[in-house]
Amino acid sequence: MEIIKAHDYAEMSAKAAELIAAQLLLKPDCVLGLATGSTPLGIYDELAHKVAAGSLSFSRARSINLDEYVGLSADDRQSYAYFMRENLFKKVDFADGANNIPNGTAADVDAECARYDSLVEQLGGIDLQLLGLGPNGHIGFNEPSDAFEPNTHLVELTAETIAANARFFGEGEHQPTRALTIGIRAIMQAKTVLLVVNGEAKAKALRDALFGPITPRLPASILQLHPRLFVVADEAAMSAIDR
């Protein structure tokens, strides 16, 4: 585990973007595991600037997104497919068909989950997996549970996660309570994991994930077992960690 401390969100974003850029430079045809939410927005902006400047290219890379809300089409403004198009895909030079996101409107959820796991295998696994951290310790939408779920699966979101994500939904907009998410196996089999965390609200979750017991009640704690884990966090997120 390598912990990289940043002063604030902007520095965290820049440092994390440098790690992703290094992955692309070392292996241009890599498979990137991508995340959504507010945390990676600054990272995606940094990467887009690098592409615009001509110093970076995604043209040979492929991507696998962690999750998608159930019931939202790819055209829905609240879907993660829409989020990724608006915040990264349309700003960089991925090839057509290079990006993959679970189908939240699949009629057969079990078949969609199996398809997605098969896709990860067909791509040869994930070279670098970008992760955020939920206040309850979730990674992707792997929520606290009695056991680590290995495969892509349907998850009932916890009240805490629903409340944390409510800020993204306007008044009167339907907020889904279920999602499809990649399981722990694909995350842990990624060659490199990059965990990015900002803000004091996640300080306790980060401390417990990195230095507490490994337990499915705090899914991110399993990252302690990953052989190549980079953590980039700002001062507020690291405020609960004893130097």
Short characterization:
The protein is α/β, with parallel strands linked by helices. It has a single domain, classed as Rossmann fold. It has seven helices and ten strands.
Describe the structure.
The protein has 243 residues and is α/β, with parallel strands linked by helices. The protein is 30% helix and 17% strand. The chain has one domain (2-234): Rossmann fold, CATH 3.40.50.1360. It is built from seven helices and ten strands. The protein has a seven-stranded parallel beta sheet with strand order 1-10-9-6-2-3-5. Helix 1 packs across helix 2. The longest helix is centred in the first third of the chain and has 18 residues, at 9-26. The mean pLDDT is 95.
- By oligomeric state, this entry counts as single chain
Rg over CA atoms: 17 Å
| Tally of structural domains | 1
Tell me, briefly, the overall form. Answer: globular
Number of strands: 10
Main β-sheet, spatial strand arrangement: 1-10-9-6-2-3-5
The first-level CATH class is given as: Alpha Beta
- Percent helix range: 25-40%
Give, in order, the helices and strands.
EHEHEEHEHEEHEHEHE
CATH topology: Rossmann fold
Catalogue the unreliable spans. none
